[in-house]
Amino acid sequence: MMKSPFFRLLFISANVVLWCAMVLMGLRQLGYQQSFAQFDHPLLKQRHLYLYKTTSLEDINQNIEIINDELNWAPLIQIEFLQGAWHLTQEIHRRPYKSKPLLSLQEYLGSLKSGSLAINIRNRSLSHFDQLSELINKQKDLKVIFTSETTNIIREARKKEPNWLFMSGHTLLSRLRVMGSLFLETMTSIDEDLVLINTNTPLQSRVAKEIQRRKKFLILDLNSSQKPPLSADGTYYGFISDNIVTLRQVQKQLQ
Length: 255
Prior knowledge:
Elements lengths: L2 H30 L16 E5 L3 H10 L6 E10 L2 E9 L4 E7 H7 L4 E6 L7 H9 L5 E5 L3 H10 L4 E3 L2 H12 L12 E4 L7 H9 L3 E5 L16 E4 L2 H11 L1
Parallel strand pairs: 1-2, 1-10, 2-5, 5-6, 6-7, 8-9, 9-10
Antiparallel strand pairs: 2-3, 3-4
């Protein structure tokens, strides 16, 4: 008599698991049916992209001198709206976040020799974005890569500057890993052109392939590993480091 309730419960559980699996597979296939087109942008036509991250005033002066006429090289600066103007800033405390201004963005742009620039905005709103756009767009033919840890800022900035390139923060990476573990990476929204990853937690190969199927590009943070996995097969399109020597070594290795 005790077996009957047990088998009924087992049968119900098996049916629930089966239906969940069918729903997941259906959603996965629905994602596969979507088609994507690559954003037409000069920086996406290079073989590789190298972003030199500045962390101090010395780095800022160095990248102005070192990065000049190479289109696929760009300084990556951190900026904030402080004291009534946009400034390059340096993080001095992570939690709670605290920073100090290093140089006004206007002064920096006046010395910039690179044809490309990547900016990481640390403000949590776009209340002064028009002023930022005006400063940057004064630089003739400057190719801009924009990133932020706040997804909504990236979405709003894209509406205002559709010709810029946009790179994801770590929020998207976490979401991709969760959805990938559920086999639902095909249903994950990816608004950015460049997807930033690190080697601390490996990205599932299915997720990497899905990113490439979306005509998006993987950017590897070289600071996250002393021995980053490099390949010349196109898995990684771009690289970020705060060490110019490291980037040059990677460039030489992939030539």
